[in-house]
Predict the 3D structure of the following.
Amino acid sequence: MSFAALAAAVVAMPALAAEPAKQPDSLILPKGFHAQVVAEGLGPIRHMALRGHDIYVSTRHGRDQPSAGIVALRLAPDHTVLQKAAIAGVDQGTGIRIHKGYLYAASGTSIVRFQLDDQLVPGGKPEVIVDGLTATNHPIAFDGQGGLYVGIDGGGGANNCPDPNTPKEAKPVGLKPCPLLETRGGVWRFDDSKPGQSLADGAHYATGIRNMAAMDWRAGDSLYGAMHGRDGTAKGWPDLVSPAQDDAIADEMHRIVNGTDIGWPYTYWDGARKLRLTAPEYGGDGKTPVTDAKYAKPVAAFQPLRPAVLDLTFYNGSQFPRSYRGGAFFAMHGGSDPAAVPGGRNGYNVVFVPFQGRKAGKPVAFAEGFAGPGDKNIKTAPYRPVGVAVGPDGALYVAESNKGKIWRISYGE
C-alpha cells in the first residue's frame, strides 16, 4: 500500500461508524476502539509513565492543590484502581518517564529519578540527575544510548525576546541575538545516569523553541517535539497580520537532530501558506518568506486556531491496527484564546499523525468529544486532554487536566 493510501485509510477511520453512545463521557472513537475510565479526581495532572499495571502521573500546582507531586496508581486486571499513593519530592512537574528501572521526573528546576522495585511507591529519596534549570515545563525523552533529552521553554510562552530599552509606547522590538537562547528555548542532551549535572554539563542539542511540552524519541529514528506557535499576533500587529493569518500560525511538530533551529523568536510558521515568516518584532511584514535555510521545516503543522499540543507519544504497540504503528498520538489541550469563532477553538481532542519511514502524514482526529456537545471553549469544556502514553499491552492512555481523569483506549477488546 502506498503512503498516500495508508494516510487516506487512517483519515477514513474516524468516519467509520463512530460509536459515541457506547463510549464513556460521550467520547467519539474510530470503529473497533473502546474507552474505559481508569481513574478520576486526580487534580491538575500532566503526563504519564506506565510500568506493567502501574501508572505514574506528574502534577502541577492548582487552585485546589497548593503543592504538587507524583500520583501513583496500581491497576487491577480489569484496569480499575487497586491502589493509589502519592510520591513527594517532585514539584511543578511535567515530564515523566520510566527508564532502566528508574522513574524519572521533571521537578521545577531539576530532573530527578527514583529507583523502582516491586512496590508501587519507591522507598528511597529522589536522586538529582540535572539541577539548576529554568523553572518551567520540562519534557524529557531517552534515546536508549545513554542520552537524556530535556526541553526548556523559551520565554515562558512569550512571542518574542524583548529589548528592555524599547519605549513603553512603542511597538516591541526583539533582541538579536536573543540572550534567552543561551540557557532556555531549546533542548539539551545529558548523560541519563550521571547524578549532579548542571546545564553546563549538557550538550546544547537544539534551539529556537518557544513553548514545548510534547517530546518523544521515535524508535529507530530520532527525537521529535511539538511546540506552540505564537499568540495574539493580529492584536499586537493589526496592520501586518489579519485575524485569519493569525489563526493560520501553526503549532509545529519537528524532527529534532543535533543543531536543529526551529526559529523562535525570530520567525514563525504559517500553516496555511506553508512557509516561514519573520516575526514582526524583527521587521517581518507578514508576507515575505524567510529564505535562511538554517531554520527547520516542520514535519507536521497543526492549524488553524492553534490546538495547544501538550504531549506526544509514538505508538510502538501491536494491539492497534498496523496503520497506527510507528505513528504519533498527540494530546491537544485546546485553544484558550477568548475570541469567539464559529464552532469554538481547535483542539480538545487526541490527534494521530501516521508515519512511513521518516515521513509524517496528515494529522487526523483520533479521539473527540472531550469538549462536550457545544462549541469548543475553555470555559465550557468538561475535559482538556493533557497527556498520552502507550501501555505495555498496547492500549493508549489519555489524561485530562480539568478533573484529573484518565481513560484507557483499547482496540478489539
In short: Residues 3-12 form the longest helix (10 residues). The helical segments are 3-12, 233-236, 243-247. The longest strand covers residues 33-39.
